[in-house]
Amino acid sequence: MNIHRRRNLSKIILYYYFLVGFVLHFVTTNYGRKQVSTSFGIVRGETVNPEVDDLPAVTQFLGIPYGVAPTGQYRFNMAISAAKWTHQPKDAFLLSNVCIQSGLPKLSETEALKSMSAQKFDHIHRILPFLKPQSEDCLYMNLFVPERLERHKTQYGQQLSVLVLIHGDDYGWGSGNAFNATILSASGQTIVVTLNYRLGVYGFMGRCEQNSCNGNSGLSDVVAALKMLSNILPSFGGDPTSITLMGWGSGASLVSLLMASPITQPKNRLFRRAILLDGTALAPWAMSMHPQQYFMKIAETLDVS
Ligand SMILES: *[C@@H]1O[C@H](CO)[C@@H](O)[C@H](O)[C@H]1NC(C)=O
């Protein structure tokens, strides 16, 4: 009798537990979510408030894959465009992994301040929490899409301009994930895109044969992302003919290389304007004139020569 009652009670508790769980689930999954149908498939983002007075809401689409994971047989190769996901919608609520990080500067303050400015030291401290988890499977981008203000719509028409951020930091570390672009996109009425690209040896090692070298797969990642963007931006209300690339440091060097590449030609133009902050490909640190020696060193270290 007693046992029987207890069983009933636990059944009731279980029942309410599920009911409450279901209601909570329903509330949290349907509040502030938005889905967009693109040529790659449906993608679901989360609408957030930038927490600044008078700024409109922004929908963030986090961790959209733009390239095939460059792992295994694809490691070091040029980026391959991502596969479509037409069979089911993709949830884009969470930031992706960042690419494998290398050469992060020393973080003991006394050591660090000997070799870098206080601003750079602060910058590293601010972004450090975002530089994990790391994975070779890291070719993802984030889109921040603002609600339109009426006055902006009447003045500038239906489509939004787009700003793509190419992060910097020695070709070796950093990630687009460290930059929350909600305020920038809401106040600028611009779609802002942040992205990861391969770093260090994964992205920029020159692979050398007898007389020739090739490499820069990290740069090919950026091109793959731009290709996908020119395809999907209209679905988000963006104008693919009005893309600005903005990079700083080694990111500015990458942008200036892209400015000299065929992707600026009228027929396959993937961006329109560029902003270079604190760097170009002509800077003395920007390029290695003798990549072969580094390739050999790595091969020796790994004992594969
Ligand atoms: C960016 O900031 C907003 C407002 O503080 C927050 O709601 C949102 O989750 C943040 N996005 C990311 C990717 O951290």
From TrEMBL:
Organism (species): Panagrolaimus davidi
Segments forming domain Carboxylesterase type B: 34-303
Keywords: Membrane, Transmembrane, Transmembrane helix
Protein name, entry field: Carboxylesterase type B domain-containing protein
Membrane-spanning residues: 12-32
Family in the record: Belongs to the type-B carboxylesterase/lipase family.
InterPro entries for the chain: AB_hydrolase_fold, CarbesteraseB, Neuroligin/BSAL
Residue stretches in coiled coil: none
Keyword Transmembrane assigned: yes
